[in-house]
Structures are given as structure tokens and as C-alpha cells.
Design a protein that fits this description.
This protein is of the alpha/beta class. It is 42% helix and 18% strand. The chain has 2 domains: 134 residues, 3-Layer(aba) Sandwich (Rossmann fold), CATH 3.40.50; 144 residues, 3-Layer(aba) Sandwich (Rossmann fold). The strands form 2 sheets. The chain has a 7-stranded mixed beta sheet, with helices on both faces. Strand 1, helix 2 and strand 2 form a beta-alpha-beta unit. Helix 2 packs parallel to helix 10 and helix 3 packs across helix 4. The radius of gyration is 24 Å and the shape is elongated. The termini are far apart. The N terminus is likely disordered.
Length: 326
């Protein structure tokens, strides 16, 4: 039967041949969609919040936009290369989460609008913006930029542990110096003995907690960084094991087993970032979009952890909590 083709086979082949130009056209269509670059450390609940907010604003990946995600994890040395990839793709906007990602994105392009999400940096002092109200360059977004929040964390932890006199401060030495200095000043004003517990990588955590115990630390303030947030389960586990009451800026910490958190709602910041992207795609310039700072802070307390630490959380503190985990 060589050289002879059956009717069924002919129809199958014909269908396949017809599908080729259709597939090519579909790909060409996707290629013409606006591209949104997303430079993010890990896949987590914040990424979900961002994608859902984009969908709520009318953007679905593969249907009317292309989301080009680059997850950098612990490969900070590759960030420059990943940011240049997004710039070379001529993205309509790049969302950069965390100081390192923002540094990489601003280094890769001075024209593509960048929406930053950052809990550690002052965007003006960092040279990324001329002012919060009129950034003036290609970067806008959401910045916490309240290093003195460390003082509030000390105050709240002291309410939960009234006898607190020796305080450990866990911080990321690669990006957290401004936060740490402000927290150090607040501890001095509160006449609390502060013990600096810097880390640079996840592998430093066990030795830092051992040092906290040997220095007879009675409680710990955990400052913010993507590294610290990514290690929250390990940190909460170590804090329980070493019987250390902790407070963090990240509201996910008490859900992971730590005692308390007081800070902005991070998924909300990612949802707001999606609104910035929507405005950019509709023609707004990053230089004209004011940089936002979170205005609402949430207090969360894990009562189960408090009981296992032998702490009686004052009713006045519980009454102010946005969420109590029992």
C-alpha cells in the first residue's frame, strides 16, 4: 500500500495541516499582548494576591496579557541577568519585589515603568525617586519606609512580656541596616538592653538562636527582609524550641507559630501593585504616580503559642488585635 493513503488518514493529516497556521496565529497574537514582567523571590500567597487582583482588573495571562515571571530565590547574583531579560522582552511594566529586585530592575532599564514593593528601603534616599508624591523617573509603587516601626514592635512585645529587659533583634545584614539602627535607638530610649542578631543567609539562623539563648535574651523583635519572611516556619520553630516570645512585621509569622506580628498586610500591597500596573497599561506614567506607603497596620497574636511559652497576654492587648489565633 506504499504511496496509497486512506481517507481517514488523509482527513487526519489535513486537520493537522490546518492546525499549524492556527497555532502560529495564536502564538503571534499572544506575542502582541502587553507583557508584564514580575521579578519575585518565591512563589507564595503574595503572588496569588497579585495575579487575582490583575484578573479583577480585567487581565488574564495568555488571553490579553503575558505575565513574564522570573523567580530568583536565593540566586541574588542572577538578578541583574533576569532583570535584563525582562527589559529585552520590552515589557510594558516590571513589578520588582524587594530591594535587590528593584536595584536590578532600575539598573536594567531607565524607560520601562517599574512598580516596586519594598518594606526595607527609602525610595528617595536610595535614588530611585525624586519625591514620594512625584517620583519623576521610571519607578513608583509601594514602600513601607518606616524604620521607626521597630520601636512600635518593642512596645507591643513589652506589653506581652512586661518583665522584658534583654531584647534580641533578628535582622538581615544585607539590607536591614536602616531598620536596625532605628530599632536600636528605640531600645535605648526604652532602656532595654539590645542584642544584635544579624544574619546574611538561612544557614545563620540556628547559630543566631543559640547565641540569643546564651546571651539570655528574653524576647525577640524580627525585622523585615525577603530572606526572613521566606524562613518564617524555621524561625517560628526555633523560637518555640528556645522558648522565645517574638514579634515580626510580617502578619504570616503568627500563622506559622510565632507569637505576634504588627505590620502591613503584604498580600494587600501586592494587590495594590496590580492596580499600579493597570494604570500604567492604560497610559499613566510612573513618574506621575505617587509612591504609596501602607496606612493600615494589623496586630495578630497566636494565643496557642503564648500558652506554650507560659505567657498570659493582657486582655487590653488582645482587645486591640485584628486576629487572635487559638
Amino acid at each position: 500500500m506504499t504511496g496509497h493513503i486512506g481517507r481517514r488518514e488523509f482527513i487526519t493529516l489535513l486537520g493537522g495541516a490546518a492546525a499549524w497556521p492556527l497555532a502560529t496565529r495564536a502564538q503571534q497574537l499572544v506575542d502582541k499582548f502587553p507583557k508584564i514582567g514580575f521579578l519575585q523571590g518565591v512563589q507564595n500567597e503574595n503572588v496569588v494576591a497579585f495575579i487575582q487582583a490583575l484578573q479583577a482588573a480585567g487581565y488574564t495571562d495568555g488571553q490579553n496579557v503575558r505575565i513574564e515571571t522570573r523567580i530568583y530565590g536565593t540566586m541574588l547574583d542572577r538578578l541583574g541577568e533576569l532583570a535584563r531579560e525582562l527589559a529585552d522582552l520590552q515589557c510594558s511594566a516590571i513589578v520588582a519585589a524587594a530591594p535587590y529586585a528593584i536595584r536590578a530592575a532600575t539598573g536594567a532599564t531607565s524607560t520601562i515603568p517599574i512598580v516596586g514593593i519594598d518594606l526595607e528601603s527609602d525610595p528617595v534616599a536610595s535614588g530611585w525617586a525624586k519625591s514620594l508624591s512625584r517620583p519623576g523617573g521610571n519607578l513608583t509603587g509601594l514602600f513601607l519606609d518606616i524604620p521607626e516601626l521597630g520601636g512600635k514592635l518593642i512596645e507591643l512585645l513589652r506589653e506581652a512580656v512586661p518583665t522584658l529587659s534583654r531584647l534580641g533583634v533578628l535582622w538581615d545584614a544585607t539590607i536591614g541596616a536602616v531598620q536596625f539602627r532605628a530599632t536600636e535607638a528605640a531600645a535605648r530610649d526604652a532602656q532595654i538592653e539590645l542584642h544584635s542578631l544579624p544574619i546574611q543567609r538561612a544557614g545563620d539562623l540556628d547559630s543566631v538562636f543559640n547565641r540569643a539563648v546564651s546571651e539570655r535574651v528574653e524576647g525577640m523583635v524580627i525585622l523585615s527582609s525577603p530572606l526572613i519572611n521566606g524562613e518564617r516556619l524555621h524561625i517560628a520553630e526555633l523560637a518555640l524550641k528556645k522558648r522565645l516570645p517574638t514579634i515580626s512585621l510580617f502578619n504570616e509569622f503568627p500563622k506559622s507559630g510565632a507569637l505576634m506580628a504588627y505590620g502591613p498586610n503584604l498580600p494587600d500591597m501586592y494587590r495594590r501593585a496590580a492596580i499600579y500596573v493597570d494604570r500604567v497599561l492604560k497610559g499613566a506614567k510612573a513618574s506621575d504616580l505617587p509612591i504609596e506607603r501602607p496606612s493600615r497596620f494589623e496586630l495578630e497574636i497566636n494565643l496557642k503559642t503564648a500558652k506554650s511559652l507560659g505567657l498570659e497576654v493582657p486582655p487590653t492587648l488582645l482587645a486591640r488585635a485584628d486576629e487572635v489565633i487559638e
